Amino acid sequence: MPDTPARLQSIVHGIMRIAVGFTYWTHGAQKFLGWFGGFGEGGTADLGTRFGVAGLIEFFGGILVILGLFTRPVAFIISGEMAVAYFWMHVPRGGPWHWDNGGETVAVYSFVFLFLAVAGAGALSLDAWRKKRKSQ
Q1: pTM, rounded to two decimals
Q2: Is residue 65 within 8 Å of residue 125, measured between CB atoms?
């Protein structure tokens, strides 16, 4: 089975995208819909604030990543959002190092989504399905 590593890599790529997309989406559902414990005093973020905009990006971007639809541009936007969140929210709390500022998850998200922006959604995705269908 010489192609097993490549096939396994493709499967794990898809599983990773779905898992990360889902955990990211839950943060958006917190801010946008008030689910999973809600956000702030009112339960949801005001859409006119940076938290509201973040909630929209996280909610809808997470769904698109889970589905593997428009993955490259969506993941690029999300990666940037997470980088901005690191410097806006975490660096002021404790300096530039994640062990002092609580920004480890945000930093990891930023780099995972940067990977997806470059690598794409993988074989188990609507992007791959659309590409295959278009070439027929």
Answers
A1: 0.90
A2: no
